[in-house]
Design brief:
Layout: H1 2-17, H2 21-48
Helix pairs in contact: 1-2
Length: 54
């Protein structure tokens, strides 16, 4: 998940350098959403990771 967020962030930077503002803003939005999902899943994994093991 974090990998895809970084990829979309790099796409946004490249698009912004070449002047494609719409594509850059869309890629940044997707990267933000993926990063938030990654954070939520990472926190849940840390909190509940060891509680269900036998």
């Amino acid at each position: 998940m974090l990998h895809y967020a970084i990829v979309f962030f790099i796409i946004a930077i490249i698009a912004a350098v070449f002047g494609f503002g719409g594509i850059a803003s869309s890629a940044v939005g997707i990267a933000k959403i993926l990063f938030v999902i990654f954070l939520i899943l990472a926190i849940l994994s840390i909190l509940f990771g060891g509680k269900f093991k036998k």
